[in-house]
Specification:
Number of domains: 2
Distance between the termini: 35 Å
Low-confidence stretches: 1-28
Strand content: under 5%
Number of helices: 12
Order of helices and strands: HHHHHHHHHHHH
CATH topology of the largest domain: Tetracycline Repressor, domain 2
CATH architecture of the largest domain: Orthogonal Bundle
Oligomer: single chain
CATH superfamily of the largest domain: Tetracycline Repressor, domain 2
Radius of gyration: 19 Å
Structural class: mainly alpha
């Protein structure tokens, strides 16, 4: 499964724990790198242990920084957690920005969006765990973010343009709310990924077998396109 190069925070594991070993890029200053390292380490800690179980010493221990530097950048554990939440949303939005949806036909653009969303959740388990954790806490931390709403407007704008072009080409019917549609797309993909362990046991299927993932991607795209089709 291809991983987007733009996702600064990715799969919990080697990509995060090896952050300290990466050289400073020519365009990147040392303070920017230290902040990024702290965010990556914090994502690993929060996504695997939750807010209550996460330890600041563990977060700092995987980086070239110290606790004083961590508090200098983020102020508190709560503010660090909110920064991680904002970054996981920013990561998926950056990856979407790499896709030329306007260069695809409306149906192909929908298939691309559905496939991308599904693939992103598969490739970024830490994203899924963070969202799961925040839902368990009734989004108490996300509510305190000053930027998360603005971060997530871009995908709704993109989807709105796809829908409008689809209406103009006769592929899609009128009256579809892009926000509601995006919630449906994420629901189709997210539930499959986040509940794969229990669903695999209940239905005795290996849901992450490559053939199953390919079939699921086609099914989701077909479902969405049939919902959008004219003549309903």
């Amino acid at each position: 499964m291809r991983r987007s190069s733009s996702a600064r925070i990715g799969v919990a594991g080697a990509a995060e724990t090896d952050a300290a070993a990466r050289p400073v890029a020519p365009y990147e200053r040392a303070p920017e790198r230290r902040r990024r390292e702290l965010l990556e380490s914090a994502l690993l800690e929060f996504s695997t242990k939750g807010y209550g179980g996460a330890r600041m010493d563990q977060i700092v221990g995987r980086t070239n920084s110290n606790k004083a530097m961590l508090y200098h950048y983020f102020g508190s554990k709560e503010e660090l957690y909110i920064a991680v939440l904002e970054e996981v949303y920013a990561g998926i939005r950056r990856s979407e920005d790499e896709i030329d949806f306007d260069g695809l036909s409306p149906p192909d653009a929908i298939r691309r969006l559905v496939g991308f969303t599904f693939g992103y959740y598969i490739d970024h388990p830490s994203f899924v765990r963070m969202i799961n954790n925040e839902n368990l806490h009734a989004a108490v931390f996300l509510k305190r973010s000053k930027s998360v709403a603005a971060l997530n407007t871009s995908i709704i704008v993109k989807l709105g343009r796809i829908l409008q072009r689809g209406i103009e080409t006769g592929d899609f019917r009128k009256g579809i709310d892009p926000t509601d549609l995006y919630i449906s797309i994420t629901g189709l993909a997210y539930t499959y990924v986040s509940n794969r362990h229990t669903l695999s046991i209940v239905f005795k299927r290996d849901l992450f077998r490559p053939s199953m993932l390919q079939a699921r991607r086609r099914t989701m795209a077909d479902m969405v396109l049939r919902y959008l089709a004219t003549g309903r």
